[in-house]
Amino acid sequence: MLALEELWEAGYWQAHGVLSQTACDWQRGELTARIGPDRGLGGRELRRELTELLRNPLPDPSPARRRLKEIISHVRVGYLERWAAEVNVPVEERVKPERYSRAVASHLLDLGYSTGHLKAWASDLHRARATTADIAESAADLARTPAGTFEVLVALARVPRRELAEPLENWLGKGKVVGWLREHGHDTSGVRPGGGFVYQVRARDPFGAAEQARQLVERMTARAQFLRRDRGGVEPFPYIWIAGHPQAVPLDPPARGADVLTLVKEGHLYRVTGRRSRIDEALELAAALNRGPVVPAVAGAWAAVESLLSHPDDPKENERSGKAVAADRMAAIIACSWPRAELTALAYRHKPRNPDDLARAVTVCTTNRERAAMVVEALRAKGAEGLDFAGTSTKYSDHPAARRMADLIQNPRAVLNDVASTFRVALRRLYRARNIILHGGAPRGVALEASLRTAAPLVGAGLDRIVHATYAEELAPLDLAARADVALRLVDGETGLSVVDLLEPASTHH
């Protein structure tokens, strides 16, 4: 659904020279390939109209683009109701549960629901022993529920140039801030404010309201950086309060999941002396990725990817500066790192109540490669049922992970290339979002927050592998990307390349 809206928006940016025809054609082609399994797009009529439109360019203005806008309106109404209807079809016609859950969750996130709210919603359904039909109906109810108005308090510890704040109608002095907190049932111990602002915001849930308040605080603190006196002196409290929500919400947002674990596992966190490397520069560029404001996070994340994985000798594409190839290279690296990561996690999660041969063998392995190879053999012999997660608290996510890995081992090349294609879509979306910000001067693109939500963990995973290759082998990022690209073509072929060795030097697995 969001991808359709993003494609419609892309026509505007193409007309203004921000996105190229090549970029928009690529986006349209990928979307055409991906609408097939999405049951929420309707039956034959809607799907036929959509497929016909996506065959040709959609310039702005054009009759085709105006038709696309109308079709998007029809698709939006009843999207999750159509998915809910798929729950009741015969078993042989159903999609896999994981595809259904991803479609529903991503749609609700794209509508503006927060991850915190959806986690609580899912937990409530689990406690109520909801059936799949119950879940589908509840999700459709959420999608139909309009955004509400929330009253949010942002308290400030320091208020430079107070005379500019006091005339504003939403300003509260020190005593009134404490009074507001008491009135709405919040604890006031330790709260010594210099004042604060009450905002009325439209959001889907309290956590979404807090996120909007964070963005208002970011605007305020950004403006304070331009003061001559008291530069940067606006100091907010570390919490945001929402009327009707019992707990204060931390001002710092949750991290976006960009983890570079190699920095700790291989002891590089504090090794910052000596000559600055390209890795140092990339990590600094991407530093805003986890908790920074959305615009610097998108711009910095893409700058890190581009700095490591593009080169002046790359073939010149028509897509802005030809840099989209960096997204494709990063996607290949992440796809090749994915099997080892999943298989290693499954090795640790395999905990039958009575230890079996696999559990005993895993405990004596000395490397993750050995552990992953053990799981491969178990999956090859018995399929996903060869793993037992009875003793783990994460069994509900472990079971689909095991099925993913079983599918991979059955058909490595096709599955890996499908995964790489999915990652490529997410990373090119990040690139488009960056171009819209920097070349279009528009920090509010329709897919801006979604691009960061999906790309942040991927960029973290890719940087992790690049950092490892640099320190372990002194392998340049472009050489690692070449290794990944070749591995996707050769896996499970005449060279005997295994899914656990995709990013290893060829000499280690021959």
Structural class: alpha+beta
Query: Strand tally, please?
Result: 5
Distance between the termini: 46 Å
Please count the helical segments.
21
Instruction: Provide the residue-averaged pLDDT.
Output: 93
Strand content: 5-15%
| Topology order in helix (H) and strand (E) letters | HHHHHHHHEHEHEHEEHHHHHHHHHH
Could you tell me the radius of gyration in angstroms? 25 Å
- Main beta sheet, described? 5 strands, antiparallel
Unreliable runs, pLDDT <50, ≥5 residues?
A: none
Portion in helices = 55-70%
- The count of domains is 5
Give me the side-by-side strand order of the main sheet.
2-3-1-4-5
Model description:
A hairpin with a 6-residue loop joins strand 4 (235-242) and strand 5 (249-250). The chain has 21 helices and five strands. The two termini are 46 Å apart. The protein has five domains: 2-77, no CATH class; 83-144; 148-250, no CATH class; 262-325 and 423-498, no CATH class; 330-413, no CATH class. The protein has helices spanning 2-15, 21-34, 44-54, 63-76, 79-86, 97-111, 115-127, 132-144, 162-165, 174-183, 206-224, 262-265, 278-285, 294-309, 324-349, 357-364, 368-382, 395-410, 412-438, 448-473, 477-490; strands at residues 148-158, 171-172, 195-203, 235-242, 249-250.
Q: How would you summarize this macromolecular structure in one to three sentences?
A:
This protein is of the alpha+beta class. It contains 21 helices and 5 strands. The protein folds into 5 domains: 2-77, no CATH class; 83-144; 148-250, no CATH class; 262-325 and 423-498, no CATH class; 330-413, no CATH class.
